[in-house]
Amino acid sequence: MAKLYELKTFISDTGNLTVFENVIPGTIQRVFYIYGAGQNPRAGHRHHRTWNALVCLNGSCQVYNHNGYVENTYFLDNPTKCLVLEPEDWHIMDNFSSDAILLVISNALYDKDDYIYEPYPNSRRLNEPELVNAR
Predict the structure, then answer these.
(1) Residue 133: per-residue pLDDT
(2) pLDDT number for residue 119
(3) For the Sugar 3,4-ketoisomerase QdtA cupin domain, which residue ranges apply (predicted)?
(4) Which of 4, 127, 10 has the alpha carbon at shortest distance from 65?
(5) How far apart are CA 40 and CA 125, in angstroms?
(6) At 23, is the secondary structure helix, strand, or coil?
(7) Average of pLDDT values for 92-115?
């Protein structure tokens, strides 16, 4: 099940330092960021094995999550917030502000066979076909 963390942050007159450590299992294998997405949905999948941590470094975005049992929508609007997605968490990121930069940290390299694109059948977002195939 997805979990929202508050990352350890040190604030001083010379700037803020936010630390990302001990958040996802394993070793960090892949880091990427999404920007310029506007209102377009991204993702629309879950994984067999991969864990991901999402941090909106600038601006804001929304993350819909469904693990087969529980559905939640998270609003990421501060670089100290970190949403950790477990492999079973089918998710969609959308409603990006114009200045949003969403950092994604993963414990696995990209593997097309690790992706599951079909949403859970009891998803409330299942009736939004433009989101079902969002990638």
Answers:
(1) 37
(2) 94
(3) 3-118
(4) 4
(5) 15
(6) coil
(7) 97
Rounded CA gap, 70 and 79, in Å?
25
pTM of the prediction?
0.90
For residue 6, what are its two tokens? 């508050």
With a CB cutoff of 8 Å and minimum separation 6, the contacts of 119 are 44, 66, 90, 125, 126, 132
CB atoms within 10 A of CB 102: 23
Q: How far, in Å, CA of 102 to CA of 14, rounded?
A: 24
DSSP string, 24-73: SSS---EEEEEES-TT--EEEEEESS--EEEEEEES-EEEEEE-SS-EEE
What is the span of the domain harbouring residue 44? 3-132
Active site residues: 45
Question: Six-digit token pair at 121?
Answer: 């059948």
Q: pLDDT at position 39, please? A: 85
- Structural domains counted in the chain: 1
Report the CATH number at residue 33.
Answer: 2.60.120.10
Angle at 72 between CA 105 and CA 91, to 5 degrees: 45
